[in-house]
From TrEMBL:
The gene is PHR1_3. Belongs to the DNA photolyase class-1 family. GO terms for cellular component: cytoplasm; nucleus. It comes from Friedmanniomyces endolithicus. Its EC number is 4.1.99.3. This is DNA photolyase phr1.
Amino acid sequence: PRPIEVLNRALEETKEQRNRIAGGEAVVHWFKRDLRTTDNQALSMASAKAKSLGVPLICMFIVSPQDYQAHLTSSARVDFELRTLEIMKEDLAEKDIPLYVTTIQERKEVSGHMLQKFEEWGAKHVFCNIEYEVDELRREAELVKRCLEKGIAFTAVHDDVVVPPGTLKSGAGKQYSVYSPWLKAWTKHLHEHPHLLEASEPPSHNPPTARTTFSTLFELPIPSAPPNKSLPPSDRTRLAHLWPAGEHAAQTRLHHYLATKASAYKTSRNFPAAPATAMLSVHFSAGTLAARTAVRLARAANKPAQRLETGDAGLVCWISEIAWRDFYKHILAQWPFVCMSKPFKYEYSDIEWDHSPQLFAKWCEGKTGYPIVDAAMRQLNSMGWMHNRCRMIVASFLAKDLLLDWRLGERYFMEKLIDGDFASNNGGWGFSASTGVDPQPYFRIFNPLLQSEKFDEAGEYIRKWVPELKGVVGKAVHDPYGRGAGEEAEKSGYPRMAVEHKVQREKALERYKEGLGRG
Ligand code: FAD
């Protein structure tokens, strides 16, 4: 059985037993990638439980260096989470709710430490939101059982996605693996189940006695980043300015975006020079903003229809992009082997990739000689974020121009992105390398120069991120050596093209065809 089924079963089979557990001296909410106090299902349930029992709510978060390692979490992301926790600690303290944050070095000791704390605090009810990666689902299923052995009810609920995975099935009763019919089913499901878009209640104020009973928890500081994930102070300051942490920043950005830019999203979203997308992905992936909240507010802004699929074209399109995030999480839950470095299309398991650390380094550093690719990689290295159009361009370039294994790029992205999210990243790489759920055939190969001219026509994005080409005028900025600006490029130290697109394209077609024959 799939890990999601194991967890669902564990929750289902223990439901009555868990319901029978009474009392306790506290209720716990375990924060993971749901770092917000508003519209948070499990937190809301935990608070309601605590209120009904007349006991305090305690929140906890575990900093797990080994989890960071296993998930290839970037230092920028760890820093964002820790900055968010500082803010949350203060917000929760205003309601007399303590936030316990500690670092547990060994991954295998996390569950044991949590159990020990539940017992120490006299907590009989623990709540959390579900994460859909294999290890996390397995851990939660095990926690349901281990907690029950100690008389503790552990409840995990769906919150990270708008529609829970496993819900949408085609007429033949199968899970969808193609986005368009899936989106139709997703929209229909939301019309039929409007409660899925309703906001959950914020946590209530704790009884004032919580301050004295759990005074030590209120005094505990938020730990600093583990040594292998800490940033130099100058990067911390820069990233804190670029990516203000916490749910208040997320709400401000969301409201501003919906009021000022979302209506133009459909026509402007593909141009990386224009700040036309919401830049909210870091908030969705750290959970400082719920996808549910964003869809609900976008639908409300879609006046007068207030629909998900008709009305303002920009808002409708934006909602459908948030749906992609749900889609990839559904794929991950249904086909968990994608978590194990396997392509979704198993018939593409045997493509022969080149081995070239030199070419890979050029790609990572933004020195391939293709200005649009280099601009994008430098944006990633500097901001921990890259525009979606450029993510597709550089991913296609790695697999189909450099002929390097897409998994190298998938990994590099996770190590750098502040919004790194396994499901969306894996889905995006599969899409771009033609090994994923996208039904397009492998012979759809991006031409990086045409992409550059089409989506960065004036070269504004390139000049911003590739200072060597700042002075190059006109179309030459897309291909300085090929379009008469070679001398200038040479002088500024801009590299020549590492590979020739036309040649590599042919090789890629051959390799994919051969791989498909073997697969
Ligand atoms: P907007 O365009 O404003 O979209 C709003 C939200 O919708 C985003 O914040 C995001 O949550 C969701 N969304 C939009 N496009 C996609 C998409 N194609 N797939 C899934 N969700 C989407 N997104 C991540 O959040 N984390 C990743 O690690 C990640 N890796 C990617 C890797 C590749 C190779 C590709 C092609 C895409 C990847 N994406 C990833 C998807 C997308 O590029 C980003 O979500 C988007 O660029 C974030 O910017 P935004 O918030 O301004 O998005």
